[in-house]
Amino acid sequence: MPEISVDVHIGRSVTEVYDFLSDARNLELWFSGVDTVAESPGPAGPGAAHVYRFPGRHRDHLLQCVAYVPGEHLVFRGDRMWNPLGTQTPVYSFTLSPRRRGTLLRLTVQSRLAGALVLLSPMVAMAWRRDLPRDVRRLGERLGAPHCHVIDAPRRVRLPVPPFPPAPARPATPPAYTPTVPPRPQVRPELRAEQRPASVPAAPERAPRPAA
């Protein structure tokens, strides 16, 4: 699921930038992820649905506003699109914050892929990294701020991964008792008959010497 984000500084107020972005019909004027957007009978806001056409597609799909915080955050989600390799669901997110001389805009594009399209996620991410800088510069031109500055080059967003919880400490246990075994006495092997020493004959008894 590739997710690419880019930051850009636009020399317009937050209100002007947000009002322009919240009207989905303006997306086709600058954003490469939208080809055409039809007129919508309802006002802009959460739940508003627009009929749009994704680039390279010949069928109409719905583009729905799923998050709407005036002056701060805006998210559009497209219909799930099917092809022989799988499905793709695009999500476009805009986050704004005021700056001294304009607005800092973070544009995030997320493509939720399924099926064999997951194998093509590096190519999808590469295409968005190529197109997003041109898109935000085109947005600045539409807002009358052609000298918008791309602060951060497109990068892959990495979601924070919670660390693994530490393993519980094991209670200290005394070492297992090992009984001491006394050494076995060494038994001298008996000699065989041929190895036994011959018996020494006893010395003959001497007669007592006569007294002088």
TrEMBL record:
Compositionally biased spans, kind Low complexity: 196-212
- State where composition is biased (Pro residues): 161-186
Pfam families this protein is in?
Answer: Polyketide_cyc2
Q: Where is this region: Disordered?
A: 161-212
What the entry lists under SUPFAM superfamilies is as follows: Bet v1-like
Q: Per its record, how is this protein called by name?
A: SRPBCC family protein
